[in-house]
Amino acid sequence: MEMKRRKGSSIYVRQWFSAVSIFAPLLLQCCFSLDYKEALSKSLLYFEAQRSGRLPYNQRVSWRHHSGLTDGLQQGVDLVGGYYDAGDNVKFGLPMAFTVTLLSWAVLEYGKEIAAAGESRHALEAIKWGTDFFVKAHTRPHVLWVQVGDGGTDHYCWQRPEDMATSRRAYKIDEDRPGSDVAAETAAAMAAASIVFRTTNTHYASLLLAHAQQLFEFGDKFRGRYDESVEAAKGYYPSLSGYKDELLWGALWLYKATDNDYYLNYVIENAKSFGGITWGMTEFSWDVKHAGIQVLLAKLATKGKHKGEHSEILKEYRTKAEYYMCANLNMNNSSSSNVRRTPGGLLYVRRWNNLQYVSSAAFLMTVYSDHLRSTNDILSCERGSVGPDELFAFAKSQVDYILGMNPMGTSYLVGFGPKYPQRVHHRAASIVSYKHEKSFIGCMQGYFTYFGRRDPNPNVVVGAVVGGPDMDDQFEDRRGNYMQSEACTYNTASLVGPFARLYYLQQEHDISTSDLPLISTGR
């Protein structure tokens, strides 16, 4: 993340970008040879592999079975359901809520495209599996259960979720132990989902909105970082950026869900003190929401209702949104203000699970390119101006890299293409399915028998996006290499929108090669 302000420039992008420049040769291949519909379908299937609780009759991932059926029992509350965040068996509320917010946003932006691919039902089911859990977890207006399971004991064991013998202790936030970040993120998820369900399930949409409003009020009134109240979360999902970005994020989604000016005024009045217009971002993640806020408000700034009112603050939000876009395009003047690239052209933020940042960047750039196109506008960077097609082309290059157009020739979307990770760091996938072997597999037995095996996982966790390659585009397909081989729900959730958009464009124009201009990957 950066704090530097972006200055404008009038130099046109074509003075800087060339389709035949130093762009990685791999991206000059036939750009639309990839099956984006398949990628979309498999990405939504992945969420069924991550389900906790009693699985429904129409469960498509057949190697999974019921799990966590007594979650919350020790505390006298029903916390059955929800998602496991990654390759372990803990349910972490903060990343789960962010995942649901991303899925809902994807449906709101690209619902038509998702429907054209025949995936609307699966997208809504993925969202509802999360929101059903949040309804359960929000037991009182000022109480939210934010974690089930303990990372320490869970990571000590290598067990299928169907066999869990580890602690299933549940953790909550309340007035005495606040957690503004997780409360506001859960409010954002439920508010965004309420918009999604408004036309198909009005009662459920109203229920979600009521919970979202209560949770936001709770998070705002009783402020504090959740990982200071729930020590068990600190080693896994610490709220390093604090809670102010989530409060802005939650308020913004509530404004979109209610059209109540109270929430918009909250975002405007706290824009500076909460970092909304003072932080120039180079990442968008489960911990840091500012870039997403800035993109949503940049879109809002062009609507007639807001062109006069709050226009100056909204312009500053747009400036920061453009800083983020320019950082990913390598178009800010200072190299420290840009996101690094691998030799193969992949955005590189940090070593551990780098693809989470790539997928979220691809989503925001896709959304913003569509916004620029719809308003007949361009992106202004310090090193030049960028049109919507150029911005979209770069977003596409990141998606295509993930799908296998990279130096390793490996798809990092598991189950897609001829070559993909076979030894994903995933307990359920790496151990023989409960459907085939119902005998109990103990805590250490899983390590001794399955973890260290060189054989591929017996179950393919289709649609998972793993952590991805290193700074040199290298990837080691090894179960113990969790920084690269573990997948997380938010990695995949960010790509649902871009996959749908690319599929629809592919169908709409019936093209096999891209006419989109390519952008240099100079670091």
Report what the structure shows:
The model is unreliable at 1-32 and 518-523 (pLDDT under 50). The two termini are 17 Å apart. The protein has 17 helices and seven strands. Strands 1-2-3 form a three-stranded antiparallel sheet. The protein is globular. It has helices spanning 36-49, 93-116, 120-137, 151-156, 180-197, 202-221, 226-229, 244-258, 261-269, 290-301, 311-329, 355-374, 388-402, 427-430, 443-451, 482-485, 489-509; strands at 91-92, 144-148, 170-173, 340-341, 347-348, 379-381, 384-386. The chain has a single domain (36-508), classed as Glycosyltransferase (Alpha/alpha barrel), CATH 1.50.10. With 523 residues, the chain is mainly alpha-helical. The longest helix is centred in the first third of the chain and has 24 residues, at 93-116. Helix 10 (290-301) crosses helix 11 (311-329).
Descriptive keywords:
two-stranded antiparallel sheet; 7 strands; disordered C terminus; three-stranded antiparallel beta sheet; polysaccharide degradation; 523 residues; mainly alpha; single chain; Glycosyltransferase; disordered N terminus
Remind me, CATH topology?
A: Glycosyltransferase
Number of strands: 7
Q: Distance N terminus to C terminus?
A: 17 Å
Helix content: 40-55%
What is the count of DSSP helices, taking H or I runs of 4+ residues? 17
The tally of structural domains comes to 1
CATH architecture: Alpha/alpha barrel
**N-to-C series of helices and strands:** HEHHEHEHHHHHHHEEHEEHHHHH
Side-by-side strand order of the widest sheet? 1-2-3
Secondary-structure-based class equals mainly alpha
Characterize the main sheet: 3 strands, antiparallel
Beta-strand residue fraction: under 5%
Report the mean per-residue pLDDT as an integer. 91
Poorly predicted residue ranges: 1-32, 518-523
- The CATH class is Mainly Alpha
The radius of gyration over CA amounts to 22 Å
